[in-house]
Structure prediction request, 558 residues.
Amino acid sequence: MDGPRKYPFCEIDQEECKGCGLCVNACPAKVLEISSHLNSRGFHPSSYKGSGCLGCGTCFYSCPEPGAITVYLKDYVPEGV
Amino acid sequence: MKGAVLRKPGGFNDIYKHKPGADKDRTHYCPGCGHGILHKLIAEALEDLEITDRTIVISPVGCSVFAYYYFNTGNLQVPHGRAPAVATSVSRANPGSVVISYQGDGDLAAIGGNHILQAANRGENITVFFVNNAIYGMTGGQMAPTTLEGMKTTTTPYGRNPATDGYPMKVAEMLNSLYAPTFIARTSLHDIANIRKTRAAVRKALQYNMEKKGFSIVEVLSMCPSNWKLGAVESQNWIRDHMLEVYPLGTLRDRGAEVAPRVRPRPELDPARVRETLGLGEGSGVKLERPKETPVYPNPSVRIAGFGGQGVLSAGVVLANLGLEYGYNVSWLPSYGPEMRGGTANCSVKIQDGTIGDTEATKPHVLIALNRPSMEKFEPIVASGGTLIYNSTLIDVTPSRKDIRVLAVPITGLADELGNTKVQSMVAAGAFAAATGLFALDDIIRLLPSLYSGEAIVKLNEKAVKAGFDFVRGIKS
Ligand SMILES: Cc1ncc(C[n+]2csc(CCOP(=O)(O)OP(=O)(O)O)c2C)c(N)n1
Ligand code: SF4
Ligand code: SF4
Ligand code: SF4
Prediction:
């Protein structure tokens, strides 16, 4: 991604994701999509389109995988800033 | 979750080190499985309530059998349906811990149906998370008690038919008929609003657990895309369109504000105190020196058999108790079943220095036969070189084995001469001591007051022991 990160945003672990699509379906801003590439386990992982995340956490709570989704909320301050 | 990031909750392990194979960084659940979402809500609550370190999760049998891979808590995995029973003991023995019974609908409502009812009825201080996915997931999609009417499963290929298969079982409503439970809710994972309600219910249930407010259960309608043969999103929609109607959502009961914290008796974990409480104590308090003479059988296994009512079982108890006083390990295994009414009864006794494995005397060194059917039944199994003591008052045949020592002792007759046939068991014990050299007569007599109460009874038994002992010593000399 170019330039400083815009908070909030959503990060998806491309290896832990099983491509179930629950987050994609649930995201109110429709900023997630199933990618065309396969991960090493043979799933098409979900990924963030790059902008428009509301930081609502819907994807996080909809996802069955413990660490597949991380959502950085609006008030997140990166370390070292 | 606290802070400005929603990330893998601290109630989870970073790496699933107990999971076999290479994939120690992801769960074994199918894509879109509801178990994963519920796990996440629980792990997040554990972190936020700061109870991860003192929580014990009981994993069931079912797809969540491996829940212990994931939760960074104490974990136990238990037999099918038994999680509430184990949770009961864990919670009572560790009142400072938060105990979670995590169960599927096959586990909780079928094989474990009675366990959950009894634990709820006792108001155990445990939290049950109950995953209702209307099917047996792990075993490949058989009907569960919760399967919907008309729903096809591998065991209801034409759809569940109430005429033969019964109706969907409403666990939350059933438990709500009991007096004791504190919190009963049914929630669902079919959309974000309901996932958030589930999150709140999970937290409340754990909060009550921390406050010792008794039994709480959250029934969670949950997707099983694999066995429903639907996609993950379709599965959520299927819950909405088919399950909600049968399983209405909501809080069926919330008495958290009214109920007082449960006061359970303080658990006693100190072994010495447990022995004392159970009356095991130090036995008679007499510590016995073993007799100087070398016993005929150093670690004897014994069978005693006869009519019910002849004191067969109590003779065995006496021998086992004597063994204990000499510092042996002992076991006593009674066997009577329907024979209690006048038929035959028998018991196995083992008196050993080493560990006792099998408690049944399948090749006894000593057989004490009090009636003929017992002798005929057990004579063949006496170990070669063993001893058969038979009750010559009632047995009018002689044993046929030539490779064993046979002692004819009129056990019933000797007791009768003392005016009470009830003391046959002590006559037999005396005969056993004399025949084996395992116990000294004086020692047995000294121990009688700890086995019987009442001076007259003790005196009578003393005479009985002596009669049996002297009779056998008389044969020998
Ligand atoms: C005593 C015993 N009986 C039967 C089984 C086979 N078995 C394993 S899992 C299971 C049903 C699991 O279904 P459920 O509790 O609904 O959990 P899910 O897999 O759907 O999460 C059965 C019957 C077993 N393991 N042990
Ligand atoms: S946090 Fe909300 S808006 Fe952002 S990606 Fe997730 S679901 Fe979409
Ligand atoms: S919900 Fe989780 S596992 Fe499913 S597609 Fe989204 S990130 Fe992947
Ligand atoms: S079989 Fe069903 S319940 Fe089991 S892991 Fe797969 S989706 Fe989940």
Observations:
- Chain A has a mean pLDDT of 91.
